[in-house]
Specification:
mainly beta, seven-stranded mixed sheet, four-stranded antiparallel sheet, 11 strands
């Protein structure tokens, strides 16, 4: 059983930056592909970024490419999402998740989820 705890959300003005963290415990962290998803009110949970267990090149949804950077530290059992040039449309609850599936972009393939952290970007 893997437990995930996100932190780092908050309120920021458009153009600002935030760094999200997700600390994992209870499993062999390097086995899991880690993903970041986000969910705005009234919308589905959408893929944001993912990184393999070994920490290879991350995958990003098109809307965040060039602005967001995902990384992981397999010693600290933590993944990060550095978010720069934030826009109001980035406002959502951000979730980290863990999977052993190669299908990294579908929420239903993830086995473990954190509780989420709110990111609000004001215009």
């Amino acid at each position: 059983q893997v437990q995930l705890v996100e932190s780092g959300g908050g309120l920021v003005q458009a153009g600002g930056s935030l760094r999200l963290s997700c600390a994992a415990s209870g499993g062999t962290f390097s086995r899991y592909t880690m993903g970041w998803f986000r969910q705005a009110p009234g919308k589905e949970r959408d893929f944001v970024a993912a990184i393999s267990g070994s920490g290879g090149t991350p995958y990003y949804t098109d809307s965040v490419k060039g602005r967001f950077t995902m990384s992981r530290d397999n010693v600290k059992n933590t993944v990060y999402l550095q978010m720069n040039s934030l826009k109001p449309e980035d406002t959502a609850v951000y979730y980290c998740a863990a999977t052993i599936s190669p299908i990294y972009y579908r929420p239903r393939t993830y086995n473990y989820w954190g509780q989420g952290t709110q990111v609000t970007v004001s215009s």
